[in-house]
Amino acid sequence: MTKYSMILALLACSFAYSQNSLKVIVKDNKTQENLIGVSVQVQQTNISGITDNTGVLELNSIENGEQKIIFNLLGYEDFSMNVIFPKQNGEVITVELFPADEEELDEVIVQSTRTSRTIKNTPTRIESIDAEELDEKANMKPANVSMVLHESTGLQVQQTSATSGNASIRVQGLDGRYTQLLKDGYANFGNFASGLSILEIPPLDLQQVEVIKGPSSTLYGGGAIAGVINFISKTPKEKGEYNFILNQSNIGQTNIGAYASKRKGKFGYAILGLVNFQKAYDVDDDDFSETPKSHNFTINPRLFYYPSESLSFMLGNSFTNTNMKGGDMHVIDGKADAYHVYFEKNKTMRNTTTFELDKKFENQNSFKLKQSLSFFDRKINIPDYEFSGLNTNAFTDASYIINREKYSLISGANLVYDKFEQRNSGALNAKSFTTGLYIQHTWDVSEAIKLENGLRVDNVSYSNVNFSKNQTFFLPKISALFRINSQWSSRVGGGLGYKIPTVFTEQTETMQYQNVQALQNVTSEKSIGGTADVNYKANIFSDLKFSVNQMFFITQINKPLVLQNEFDGSYFVNASDPVLSQGFETNLKFIYKDDFKLFVGYTFTDAKAKYLTANQVLPLMPKNKVNLALIYEKENNFKMGLEGYFTDEQFLYNGMQTPTYWEFGFMVEKTLWKNFAFFINFENFTDTKQSNYKRVVNDPHNAPTFDDIWVHTEGFTINGGVKIKL
Q: What is the pTM of this model?
């Protein structure tokens, strides 16, 4: 060997010696479960990798000296450690990652199942819209929560009136009457009140919105066939919260709102106040309003008393008053004549009083009593016709929860009284009384398997001017969570549901209940349904997090209540064949460096009325929908978002088919001086609206009829304002 070859050999040996290996195994600090898909990187180098299905990773070609190793996994706190190389051959380093704090989505405490569990440990599938997203949606529509729901995968806000803007919410293709709307667990938004419910719930005082899709009758009884949407209010904390919003739009809407809350010692308070003004707006110059002239006022004070840390009381009262007038712009302006006569007025008053007692015991058990009394008074006027009435709802629920290390058991009873009194004729007077008993058991079989099953028994008496009926319903439910590993999990669930008959549906709302006959010899609708999903989350690389949720659903409603239109009036019958809705939802989320967030949602819905002989597709239900949202945010500094939504063809009630359409929106928010944020929102800036295709209003001008609403009516809108948080 020559002198030069010996030097090269020594250099090669030295170089090989300086290239080290690192073998690590990564575990969950709490469960000691090996974590799959953990991103591991040697800082300031291109050396990185991801742990395999045993939680193990080996990195090679690491230079001598002290190196910083970074560990990252979605749902866990980032971790780093310094390692000095060279190390002893074959040495394996064990690293434990801590779950991320409660600000992470997986750590959100859900309330709708009453078990005080986090989302990731709840067998029932729940989607949570958090305070941050609610704050973004408030920029778009501060008056109500319709925008929050409209832009969520699998949900559809269905406008029911061309002139008043009334709307209902559909879940998984089913009519709005099959979805139970709750405010803090109180069900005061059904029957006569349903057509305006989502228009009278402001987002300013909400902490989160929880959506349960599929049958949810065990805890919430009748009406929860398609699912439950629970709007959860903020509660006072030791540090006071004071929020204000001022918003103005180019179509004449003004919103002024304030929320304040604070707890001091044994007392606390929370108060919401909101005033909305809307000018009548005619975007297509056809003399008819796309948005009505309206003013709306909401005040909701709540008082809290904490005699001890284990006992609390809450007393609240929510009052909302709304006046709307839509129709012919000349009539709205007070310039009616023989040609300009059509209008639609809606005047409503909603008052809900709530009381809550919450007692916690030393053994972690708890008792909760909830009561509410709600009055909803509404008057509808169109030329030569008036419909008005008062809906009274009383709700009482008492539950006892046993909490143990491996399981929780909820048992309870509730009473629901609902009465509608029609003024003048009394033809549609109706009432119902429901007594319910329920039990729900949640069991942690292991870290990998969690089961939840329940049973509810409801006895319902309902009657109107024509008949009375008493029925008993047995409503079992089961759901399961399978945590396969740190990346994969799955939930499955199913159950039964029911809905007692009502004349207040989306179809009759569009008719202002004209010539609708009282129910006669009909029976409750019954359902069976279920959902199943698969979740996957991982780090594509250290700065890019990815998660996907793939959910499948199916619901069958037997003896559905169907409206029949005859020359002398409209009446309901139970169809012999069912309504069947089935499909799937796909949700993708990408997060880059916590600043950029991309959300992709796709919904496929195959909803059919099997009782129809020809086209069985349910009206106003697109088979395909796509939701896209790209958000860039620097916390407490700057935020902007671009959103796009695709809606497939829909069938109208007359059998006609609509075209497909896209809509887009853009929002910017800038925070100044820490407490002040300025925002501007360009909603539907492509100006997609129904009148682009055909006039919504049909002649004659003095006695018009209106097409079904299947897309925006007001077109492109701009709004902006200021938010103050103290």
A: 0.85
